[in-house]
Amino acid sequence: MIHAAAPDLSGNEKTYVAECLDSTWISSAGKFIDEFELRFAELCGAKHAIATNNGTTALHLALAALGIGPGDEVIVPVLTYIASANAVRYCGAEPVFVDVDDSMNLDPALLEAAITPRTRAIMPVDLYGNPADLPAVRAVAERHGLLVVQDAAEAHGAEVGGRRVGSMADATSFSFFGNKIVTTGEGGAVTTDDDALAARLRLLRGQGMDPQRRYWFPEVGFNYRMTNVAAAIGVAQLERFDEMIATRDRLAARYDELLGDLADVTLPTQRPGTRRVNWMYTITCDDLTLEQRDAVIRGLAEDGIETRPVFHPLHHLPPYEQEHGRYPVAERLGATGISLPTHVGLSDADLVRVAARLAERLAEVRSA
Q1: Among 2, 126, 169, 177, which residue has the least CB neighbours within 10 Å?
Q2: Hey, which residues does 308 pair with through a beta bridge?
Q3: Which one is the CATH code of 241-367: 3.90.1150.10, 3.40.630.120, 3.40.50.2300, 3.40.1190.20?
Q4: Domain ranges of the chain
């Protein structure tokens, strides 16, 4: 079976985890947490990285620390993983959806029309490792006095204008789930350059306990801390970050060669001045219906190739259901997109097999 994603644990992961076990520092204190936060902040070009137990709690923590609450609205791209909208709801606020452009990211041209007196923040999402148009988003946010809370769960190392994602928003959240470019098993982080915000993020992450007075809780917080064991895995991952990114770049370039001649298939792109990181190599089969796209995915599974559909647009999902037809680009991409296997354990023979079987399955559904 060629899996869609798989972690690379070939570095010092076992050594560092064993060190945690030998030292008995396995919970939310220990040297690897500090080291992971320092290394990840450096990677992003940010002053602070606050590690959490997963990417969703990182996003919720960022919104809560910035004071997003009941009565507020946060603009969210309608094509994203559901955690982006859920984190807004956790705060008692309401996500307001905006369509995406062909990059699969929030369309900045649609932001102004979505802003109301209740809007507090804009949440660009770097879908599948392709960075959103942060300069355009920030320009709108600054005109209206809004916060920018970036969901970069899938975009470790992506760049806009030579700057790393994680260094350009008021707060940026990341995920380190097992299928991400950098993994800690489960984990997340918030990056920021704001010293006061970083202190508040740390306060709320640890149940709201006063850092100067043990077991004194001035306010309600959350138990969102990362464990030392998870951070140990993350430190080992960061030691090989450049190597893993370069391997993913080579995989994407090879997919480009193998799939470039397929009719009615659009390959991943990136805007000028940005650097995409290839979390998932995601194509769109432009002439297919949703049913045909799903038939291709089922056929590839029968061939021993695991792929993934592009996320359902949020307005199709029961918690956020709205009238269809309001977000045409997201609906088209959500119905025709396929994420192909993308991880550093793939061989060239694997890529050749994926490309060949994809071409055959596409031909089958088109001729049916």
Answers
A1: 177
A2: 339
A3: 3.90.1150.10
A4: 13-239, 241-367
